Amino acid sequence: MEEQKKQHRLLLMPSPLQGHITPLLHLAQILFSKGFSITILHTLYNSPDPTSYPQFSFHAIPDGLSESETATLDSVNLTRLINIRCLHPLKEYLLSLLSDSLQSVPCFISDAALHFTQSVCDEFKLPRLVLRTGGASSFLVFASFPLLRQKGYLPVQESRLEEPVVDFPPLKVKDLPMYQSNDPETFYKLVCRFVEECKASSGVIWNTFEELESSALTKLRQDFSIPIYPIGPFHKGLLTGSAASASLLTPDKSCMSWLDRQEHSSVVYVSFGSIASISEDEFLEIAWGLSNSQQPFLWVIRPGLIRDSEWLEALPSGFLENLGERGYFVKWAPQEQVLSHPAVGAFWTHNGWNSTLESICEGVPMICMPCFADQKVNAKFASSVWKVGVQLENKLERGEVERTIKKVMVGDGAKEIRENALNLKEKASACLREGGSSHCFLDSLVSDILSVAS
Ligand code: UDX
């Protein structure tokens, strides 16, 4: 059986954003550990580091993106261009690979955002599996965009933000996955397109688990007539490796010894992921809120996080001196390691799906501050469905920040949130064990791939 699988080469193509590259490389590691050979096809923009994965082959698909495009375009517009410009280069690559290859190529696995790969795979009669790196609950909302538009919920209107979205309890209009850009139509079209091409695929692999999103997964199985494989959380299902090796930035590990010096469950870890940005005013309100809360904190200030600011220069003089050892700043953290450190008591997150799952896996309560897209749905689920966090609902203002931190760390409801988080952590771990849901779905995925190959 293992020998049989080694003859099979799987082609995997990530969308070139950190939150997408990491789960795809993790999936590749999982499938490699099941005996498949792996080739990662990647754009030149944000190309992964092949030296971290000597067991894989890497092949660049020219994306035609200029430096000024990658410097100025947002992720939606970059994705739109990649879907256009990678089409011919991918066809050329497959043409030569499939005519020469001594190994069988049973399927192509692409990120859902790379919808162009469906038509290419159809042309080569190559089954395409989709990796959806976000959650199933948010995907269900994406899949209903035309309906939400028809019912007048989209485009989102300021005057209706507090209205419930009838078909999607407990979501309100403000929780709908919108993208802050001058061009909401491009986002709408991209979403509709990637949902359509998921439906046309041979199956969708999800970095989630059945017990976490059972109602969304059940509904997706009814609406989509293709197999659905929830086999996450990927990073916990790996036999070797960690997120750090999939990182585009180098993590500053000095924060780990700072964490060692902090009390158990006392630290607020603050990170808003790889894309979101905040204004200088917002930065200052967060900084004052954290400082006034009296809790120690570790804050990731990624280059580009604060608009028009490089690092901490906007802080008033004396701020850092007053803070002393109680605050620690890094440009990029070894996030999984940080979340698993016993000193961490809460994660103030933007609720990107990877961060949300990583927090769940370590049983860390969340302070939810979603910025855009699926993050809003994830935050609502974390705070109102799984009840493992509190959402920063009102204006981003220092008093509100301080109150919210206290609510999660020491308030009346803090114990319940912590217990819920620990229960969910246990479920996240149980699903990966022999007989657990993700373990079983992974077995079906492997056998479905092999049945196509034979
Ligand atoms: C993007 C989208 O914004 C989000 O909506 C979608 O769900 C995934 O892609 P991103 O900002 O990249 O999200 O956040 P997230 O999904 O949380 O991924 C960030 C990754 O970077 C995580 O795996 C996290 O562990 C890692 N990270 C983050 C670090 O390793 N170090 C850090 O300092 C910060």
UniProtKB/TrEMBL annotation:
Gene3D superfamilies reported in the protein's UniProt record: Glycogen Phosphorylase B (3.40.50.2000)
Lineage, highest ranks first: Eukaryota, Viridiplantae, Streptophyta, Embryophyta, Tracheophyta
InterPro entries on file: UDP_glucos_trans
One GO MF term: quercetin 7-O-glucosyltransferase activity
Protein family (similarity comment): Belongs to the UDP-glycosyltransferase family.
Pfam families found in the cross-reference section: UDPGT
UniProt keyword list: Transferase
Listed SUPFAM superfamilies: UDP-Glycosyltransferase/glycogen phosphorylase
Record's protein name: UDP-glycosyltransferase 76F1
PANTHER family: CYTOKININ 7-BETA-GLUCOSYLTRANSFERASE-RELATED (PTHR11926:SF925), GLUCOSYL/GLUCURONOSYL TRANSFERASES (PTHR11926)
